[in-house]
What we know:
The structure holds two protein chains of two kinds.
Chain A: H1 5-13, H2 38-52, H3 58-63, H4 67-76
Chain B: E1 2-6, E2 9-18, E3 22-24, H1 33-43, E4 47-49, H2 59-74, E5 81-87, H3 98-105, E6 113-117, H4 123-135, E7 142-149, H5 160-163, E8 169-177, E9 184-191, E10 199-200, E11 218-219, E12 225-226, E13 232-233, H6 235-256, E14 266-269, H7 274-283, H8 295-298, H9 305-320, E15 322-331, E16 335-344, E17 352-353
Parallel strand pairs in B: 2-17, 5-6, 5-7, 14-15
Antiparallel strand pairs in B: 1-9, 2-8, 3-4, 7-8, 9-16, 10-13, 11-12, 15-16
Amino acid sequence: MIMELNDFxxxxxxxxxxxxxxxxxxxxxxxxxxxxxxxxxxxxxxxxDEEFEKRVTGADLRGVSTIEDLYNLIQKK
Amino acid sequence: MSxxxxxNVKIKGMAACVPERVEENKxxxxxxxxxxxxxxxxxxxxxxxxxxxxxxxxTSDLCQKAxxxxxxxxxxxxxxxxxxxxxxxxxxxxxxxxxxxxxxxxGLPTSCLAFDITLGCSGFLxxxxxxxxxxxCGTIKKALLMVGNTQSVYxxxxxxxxxxxxxxxxxxxxxxxxxxxSDTMDFHYLTDGSGRASVIVPDGGCRNPVNEKSFIMEDFGxxxxxxxxxxxxxxxxxxxxxxxxxxxxxxxxxxQFPYDDESIxxxxxxxxxxxxxxxxxxxxxxxxxxxxxxxxxxxxxxxxTIPLLMVTNLGKKLQENKLDLLMTTIGVGYSISSARINMGxxxxxxxxxx
Lengths: 77, 354
């Protein structure tokens, strides 16, 4: 299933409970969002597993900066 | 990829013991109420039974109390017990093996083969496969598998990812060699030491002996502080690894030893944290009614989680019926195991406290 970048940004935004969806764009540096933490990271990893059937690790998340970076990383896996 | 299929062995009884002392997560002083609530919601842990780690209660004490009761209820003669395996990371001493200590304290015969296995969360299924494999030789007739940990000793109070998660428990499973009436015990095992740094107590072994630096409280940001003598767990890495590899293990088991999902009565997941467990339950496609939890009351009790779950949630059913059980664990190592165990009509006393 090929998900477009903008759809991915929306799905990514849904993993956050307290941050409005409008704050998320492809160039958002997601680790700078106040709500970001290990609990949200778990939710993102689970989402990527469910949507793409691919495994993203903690190290992968540490190595990318923007949501678009993460999207590109997933495409390469 | 390793498979074991144990024949001619029957589980005759199971018992468990936890510390009476309870720590309520809502009373944690280092986080605001809303954050504690979030942790409780995600991990599923409301409270844990934890020993005071002054030597007064060790894992062996919890296992011994459970074993004395189980042996009495089974009507076993201790002199017939030929094998004792103790599976834990929280041994009485660095040496000798805790199994030797227990052999003497319990008055088991000196003819008993007894040894320790050093494992955490995967300990029950690895221990069960090992003890079953030895028993099926037929020369030893009765065996005890003790699995537990007082791993809350490794949690730094200032590391909420560990402190609010880890609980203590000791369990015992009694098995017999039996050709006429035996259980199905099929296992799949996987070891991946590339994940060894994800769950580790860095200092205190031979690789990094204790030194002055071992006692320094290090700040890992986000309010997390621990020393090198505390357990460090990279929760995100473990979660990522488990999501991918636990279902693979179950799939391998099913491919090697086919069974019908419909015929499985219960899926017993290592009680690691509820968020992970629920994701795994859905990936494995089992309905909620077939997947019991006790993590809210006991937390993550390492190798004891599955036997403890059987005692607390399935004890009565296991006394009256045979149950077809699918089990899966992921533990420190990484060490992963999945098993299909058809067993039942066992002696199973109520949960004990110490």
